[in-house]
Amino acid sequence: MNYSNKDIAKQLKELAMYAQLDGVNRFKIRAYKEAANTIENYPTSIEKMVKNKQNLKQIPHIGKKIEKKIYQLINSGKISALERYRAKYPASLLELLAIPGIGAKKAMILYKKLNVNSLNSLQSALKSGELNNLKGFGKKLIKHIQEGLTMLKQEGKRFLYANAKPYAKDIVEYMQKHPKVKKAIVAGSFRRKKESVGDLDLVVVCKKKDSSEVVEHFTKYNKLKDIITQGSNRATIVLENSLQIDLKVAQSSFYGATLSYFTGSKAHTLHIRKMAKEIGWKVSEYGIFKDETKLDKRSEKSFYKTLSLDFIEPELRELRGEFEAAKNHTLPKLLKQSDIKGDLHIHTNFSDGVESLENMVVAAYKKGYKYIAITDHSWHMPLLHGLDEDRLLKQIEIIDKLNQKYKNLKILKGIEVDILKDGSLALSDDLLEKLDIVVASIHDYFNLSKIKQTNRIIKAMQNPNVNIIGHISGRLIQQRAPYPLNYTKIFEVAKKESVAIEINSQPQRLDINDIYAKLAKEMGVKFAINSDAHHIKCLDYIEYGVNQARRGWLEKKDVINTWGLKKLKEFLDK
Ligand code: DGT
Ligand code: CA
Ligand code: CA
Ligand code: ZN
């Protein structure tokens, strides 16, 4: 097979980006984007369908013209329209579109007037001050662009947790296959379940005499591109996808101390050293020492116990109050994935999902859920094929029938309603009242001022039908910065109005983030951890939302979709 659905989607996305630069009409661009989104998540192989000469127009959002392009790609290896664009513009010009504040028009101005055609040349132009005299580029925008550029540069080399996970799993399995290896575990930010990781830090346990043999095995991993360093008990490799893996070999006798050291965070481990120093002890990756005597035993549990601390879960090791809590026995009992009883933000092919309502229901049931909410988009955003009143009423009817058919899973009737620019909602209150649950989200006007954006969300929360605010900050990790908000103000209203804040589990969103989740919890706000699935397999994204919730110190009681249906209904009915 040459083209996975992802590959095809990628080409269509590229086509959409070039078309944007080229000033093609927006309906055509939208059509490319829609087709790409659909294909990306489509359950059967499009390539196979083409090989079998099947009609692609049966797939949602694929019309005659796009079908032709896909056939062209698979039969000839090229989409001719895309090839023409590639010849016309430098590929690096597309990089500019990733910066908040730069759309197609601004990108073309930069290109034509200043010959800026990549992130690097943009950086130089910013530095030399050339942008200051450019029409349409005000002071505020230039500052915004500089910030976006800095963020992209910092984040660009990191991997989303979800993307690093299969590699972490694979290297652990590979190391465990070696007969001398007793244990292999990925520490570092990966173990702390950070939303993105700079590299993987692998701790492997074996007998001291076997160390070099184990390091040798590591450097023979078949997916590596390069060996950066190799010593007797450590090494660093880079994989073909540029992901770096640091190996540290430890012995059973000091495994806990090594694991703690390499789990970090740096701020957390530095604090441990400081604490130890104050009482005349010393901490290293080999253990806790008073003079020459090792005080801790093998395990990480004993490492913390020796320091008179309750065990601190890796997700909490960010120097955000975990030491005080561990001393006072007030660490949170973090929620677990198995606590989740249902998913309250799910799309179907009524809007921009790819799966039928019933298929989503069956998949959720198979996951063991007790309830789910179907929350397709409202009509406001054409790209998302939202529901108007008629289609929503039709969906309500279907859900009523499915609730008869599937007695062991409660399907809640819901919507992901757009929050309009002024904070009002895209559907009438009469209609929203008919629903069991309303998720309200922002999908446009990301550039409002902090005050306006904050008031927009507050006004939405004050609508008595609203139960959850979806992906509150609008960020896309490594792609789009969050818009500024006054979180304290928002959380005050959320608590007062019994509105839950979503932890959106999409790997690129993870929105609300860990820091604000912790703040909201402290202010008494409740949460909903949602997959925002547009496809069956994306129901599993919940795992990442739970990670983020744990990093935000959340417990079962803080999260409404860990509750039983009765208690949940009470919360939703206010
Ligand atoms: P990352 O890779 O940027 O996502 O973040 P980490 O936390 O995985 O950082 P990394 O890979 O540089 O180092 C892994 C762990 O090793 C880190 O969490 C703590 C420990 N570590 C690394 N460098 C230092 C250091 O200079 N001092 C201390 N105390 N610990 C360090
Ligand atoms: Ca790391
Ligand atoms: Ca590292
Ligand atoms: Zn949304």
Structure overview:
This protein has 574 residues and is α/β, with parallel strands linked by helices. It folds into 4 domains: 151 residues, DNA polymerase beta, N-terminal domain-like (DNA polymerase, domain 1), CATH 1.10.150.110; 94 residues, Beta Polymerase, domain 2 (2-Layer Sandwich); 62 residues, DNA polymerase, thumb domain (Beta Polymerase, domain 3), CATH 3.30.210.10; 237 residues, Metal-dependent hydrolases (TIM Barrel). 43% of the residues lie in helices and 13% in strands. A hairpin with a 2-residue loop joins strand 9 and strand 10. The model has no long low-confidence stretch (mean pLDDT 94).
Indicate the topology.
Elements: H1 5-21, H2 26-40, H3 46-51, H4 64-76, H5 80-88, H6 104-114, H7 119-128, H8 139-156, E1 159-160, H9 161-176, E2 183-186, H10 188-191, E3 196-197, E4 200-205, H11 211-218, E5 224-230, E6 234-239, E7 244-250, H12 255-263, H13 266-278, E8 282-284, E9 287-290, E10 293-294, H14 300-306, H15 322-327, E11 342-346, H16 357-366, E12 371-374, H17 389-405, E13 410-418, H18 429-433, E14 437-441, H19 450-462, E15 468-469, H20 487-496, E16 500-504, H21 514-522, E17 527-530, H22 542-551, H23 565-573
Parallel strand pairs: 4-7, 11-12, 12-13, 13-14, 14-15, 15-16, 16-17
Antiparallel strand pairs: 1-3, 2-4, 5-6, 6-7, 8-9, 9-10
Helix pairs in contact: 1-2, 1-5, 12-14, 19-20, 21-22
This protein binds 2'-deoxyguanosine-5'-triphosphate, calcium ion (2 copies) and zinc ion.
